[in-house]
UniProtKB/TrEMBL annotation:
Protein family (similarity comment): Belongs to the GPN-loop GTPase family.
Molecular functions per Gene Ontology: GTP binding; GTPase activity
PANTHER family per record: GPN-LOOP GTPASE 3, XPA-BINDING PROTEIN 1-RELATED
Ranges of Low complexity composition bias in the record: 180-190
Assembly: Heterodimers with GPN1 or GPN2. Binds to RNA polymerase II (RNAPII).
Protein name in the entry: GPN-loop GTPase 3
UniProt function note: Small GTPase required for proper nuclear import of RNA polymerase II and III (RNAPII and RNAPIII). May act at an RNAP assembly step prior to nuclear import.
InterPro entries, per database record: Gpn, Gpn3, P-loop_NTPase
Residue ranges with Acidic residues bias: 268-288
Tagged with keyword Nucleotide-binding: yes
Amino acid sequence: MRYAVLVTGPAGAGKSTFSTAFATHLRMARRTAHIVNLDPAATGDAFEYEPAIDIRELVTLEDVMSEMGMGPNGGLVYCFEYLLQNMDWLEDELGGYDEDYLIIDCPGQIELYTHHPFLPILARNLQRMGIRTCAAYLIDSQFMEDRYKFFSGVLSAMSAMVNLEIPWINIMSKMDLVSPSPSSEGASEPRNGRRTRKDISRYLDPDPLLLATARDGRVENGRFHELNRALVQLIEDHPLVSFLPLDLTSTESLEVVVSHIDFTMQYGEDEEPKEPNDLDGGDFPEVE
Ligand SMILES: Nc1nc2c(ncn2[C@@H]2O[C@H](COP(=O)(O)OP(=O)(O)OP(=O)(O)O)[C@@H](O)[C@H]2O)c(=O)[nH]1
Ligand SMILES: [Mg+2]
C-alpha cells in the first residue's frame, strides 16, 4: 500500500516547512518518506531534501510566463492544467515508489483550492493508482489575530473541503508564534500580542461567540451581525472544521499531528483482504 498526504493551504501557511519536518520525522522513525514538489514556482533550493518527484521537471512557472506571455497567476493555473493533462507523467514518476509515504507539497495559490478542480482531480487520480490519500489544510496561526481574517480562513478551508472526496484534517501552523502567556491566563483577549489558552482553544475549535461578539464583549449591530450569525451556524453545523495545533519547535506536537494523519489514512491497516476487483475501475466487460 502506498500513502499520500496532500499538504495544502494558502500562501505562506508553512506547507513546505511542514512537509520537510514531516519527512524528517518519518525517516527518524525508520519509515520511508518522499517529498513530491507540486509547486511549479518553487525556487531552486527551497527544500532541505531533493524532492523525489518534482513538477518543475515537467513544467516551470518561469517557462510558462516567458513562453506563453502569462502573468504569475494565470501561469500557475496553466501549469496545473498542464499537469492534469499529463497525469501519465506523474503516474510514471510515482511508479517507482512502492510501500512508501508520499508527502505532496502543493502550491499556495488559493484559487487552486477554492474554484479550480485541480485538487479533486489529482486526488481521484492518486486513488485510481491505488494510493491511499488524505489532505492536510494548513492555516497560519497569525489568522487568529483577527477574527474576521480567521473566519475567512475557515470558509476557504471549507470551500476547498467540500470539493474533495478524501479524508481531511485542518492544521493551525506556526503555533510557536502564539504560545500562551502564563501571566495573562484567564483573560479572554490577547495581551502584548500573546494569547491565553482559553483564547487559543476558542479558535482551534471555533467558538461561535467569537464572531458574534465584539472585542469588548458587546453584541455587534445590524446586518453584519445577522450575516455573522449565519456563518457561525454554518461552522457549528459542519463537523469537520476544527484545527490541530502544530508547533514545529515541539517534537511532541509534530508527533500528535503525524499520528492524526496516520489514523486518518489508516496507516498500517492494509493487511485486510483486498477487494476482488476494483469496483469502480473500468475492468468489467460492458454489460449489455
Ligand atoms: N515561526 C514559524 N515560522 C514558520 C513555520 N513554518 C514556516 N514558517 C515560516 O513561514 C514562511 C513560509 O513558510 P513556507 O514553508 O515556505 O510556506 P508555504 O506554505 O510552503 O509557502 P508557499 O509555498 O509560498 O505557499 C517561511 O519564512 C518560514 O520560515 C513555523 O512553524 N514557525
Ligand atoms: Mg511552499
